[in-house]
Amino acid sequence: MDHIRPIKDLRNTQEISDLCHSSGEPVYITKNGYGDLVVMSIEAYEKKMRKLELYEKIAKAEEQLDDDENLQLAEKLFEELREKYEF
User: Fold this and answer.
1) C-alpha to C-alpha distance for 87 and 37, rounded to whole angstroms
2) Domain extents for the chain?
3) Between the CA atoms of 62, 64, 67 and 73, what dihedral angle is there, to the nearest 10 degrees?
4) Are 2 and 25 in contact (CB under 8 A)?
5) What 3-state class would DSSP assign to 27?
C-alpha cells in the first residue's frame, strides 16, 4: 500500500524512518497537495537498484538475442560441442 504524507510530517523524522523501515516501501511526500519527494530506507533503495540492474541485464541479453550474428556463433559453438562430446 502506498504511504503518502504531507511535507510537514518530515518534522517527525523518527516516525517517517520507522514507517520506511517497517513497510519496506517508499513514502511519498506531498507539498501543497502535489507529489514532491520520495523517502525510503536504504534497504528498499538497494533492493530497487538491484532489480533495476537485473532488468538492464535482461534487456541487454534480449538485444543480443536479436542479433543474428551472435545467434549464429552460439549455434556453431553448440554444434562443435556436440561433435566433440558426441551427444
Assistant:
1) 58
2) 3-40, 49-85
3) -130
4) yes
5) strand
**Count of alpha carbons within 13 angstroms of residue 41, beta-carbon side:** 15
Collapsing DSSP to helix, strand or coil, 23 comes out as helix
Per-residue pLDDT of 25-59, as tens digits, reads 999 999 999 999 999 999 999 999 999 999 999 99
87: helix, strand or coil: coil
Cut 0.70: pTM above it: no
The DSSP H or E segment spanning 38 is: strand 34-39
> With 0-12 CB in 10 A as exposed, 13-18 as middle and 19+ as buried, what is 20?
buried
Pairing of strands 3-6, 27-31: parallel
CATH code, residues 3-40: 3.40.1620.10
DSSP H helices, the chain, are 13-23, 42-66, 68-85
